[in-house]
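F.,

This is the one I mentioned.
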């Protein structure tokens, strides 16, 4: 039976439906979430997703706060909650066993739509992807998420679209998962991955170039290098070094392919970044690495 709402609540329903419509569209074609036991799901994936969207919009502080609203608030009870309502045990079960495959499907569809709509803040720099990883608490369905004894955590590997400030690709591993291999999974040919020192690897620098995947990656200041060609820098610029080099020691770990090394100073802090972006000014390379901080802010909000 359709809901019968008062005029004010009807307006709220229309606004919520308008906001939720892209999410509803993103579910189309998704593999349905099925129960992992003989007992049927107490909340469908769509009901759970709708409830979680409402949870964040209303800035509820806990599941108990949300469930109280679903029982006592007329709009939440009639528009958001499942038709037969939902109890704490049912909501907890849905949250702890939620379908990772389904959530990733919805995320990927929403990301594609957002990327087409949002403006490109730095078109002159090309497509920029900030890459980093972070530990997150696992849920019960992540039985693979080992970290250490007594602690189950997953590691999320994120590629953040720095031109539009939205996450692009997301991968999950157990908490001890290696980060570097995911660069090749996250980057597409022509994109520039922007990474901190944890991703520096001379073999990776060679492989990414061979895969036509560009990079801007901070390295250690004492990294061994062989200068192939050194460029003049403006003495008034914050850039103090710009050269084409081979990184690493000969016959040990030296790069096969040349890279560009840019050194610059900001607030008494020296940075050295390796890149295969030979098409930009050194100051633009420094700007690209500065934009990497956006992924740290993304994790902080998360």
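My design for it:
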């Amino acid at each position: 039976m359709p809901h019968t709402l008062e005029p004010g609540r009807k307006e709220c329903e229309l606004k919520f439906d308008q906001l939720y419509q892209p999410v509803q569209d993103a579910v189309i074609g998704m593999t349905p979430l099925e129960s992992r036991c003989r007992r049927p799901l107490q909340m469908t994936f769509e009901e759970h997703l709708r409830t979680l969207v409402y949870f964040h919009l209303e800035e509820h502080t806990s599941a108990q706060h949300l469930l109280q609203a679903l029982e006592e608030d007329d709009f939440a009870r009639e528009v958001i909650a499942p038709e037969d309502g939902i109890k704490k045990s049912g909501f907890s079960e849905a949250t702890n066993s939620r379908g990772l495959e389904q959530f990733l499907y919805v995320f990927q569809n929403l990301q594609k739509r957002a990327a087409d709509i949002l403006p490109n803040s730095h078109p002159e720099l090309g497509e920029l992807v900030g890459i980093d990883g972070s530990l997150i608490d696992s849920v019960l369905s992540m039985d693979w998420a080992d970290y250490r004894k007594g602690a189950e955590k997953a590691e999320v590997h994120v590629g953040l679209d720095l031109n539009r400030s939205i996450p692009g690709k997301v991968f999950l591993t157990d908490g001890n998962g290696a980060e570097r291999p995911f660069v090749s999974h996250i980057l597409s040919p022509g994109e520039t991955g922007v990474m901190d020192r944890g991703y520096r690897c001379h073999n990776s620098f060679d492989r990414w170039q061979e895969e036509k995947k560009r990079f801007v990656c901070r390295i250690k200041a004492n990294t061994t290098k062989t200068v192939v060609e050194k460029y003049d820098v403006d003495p008034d610029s914050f850039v103090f070094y710009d050269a084409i080099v081979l990184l690493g020691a000969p016959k040990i770990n030296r790069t096969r392919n040349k890279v560009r090394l840019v050194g610059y100073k900001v607030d008494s802090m020296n940075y050295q970044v390796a890149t295969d972006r030979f098409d930009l000014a050194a100051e633009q390379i420094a700007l690209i690495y500065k934009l990497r901080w956006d992924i740290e802010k993304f994790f902080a909000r998360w």
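The mean pLDDT is 89.

Talk soon.
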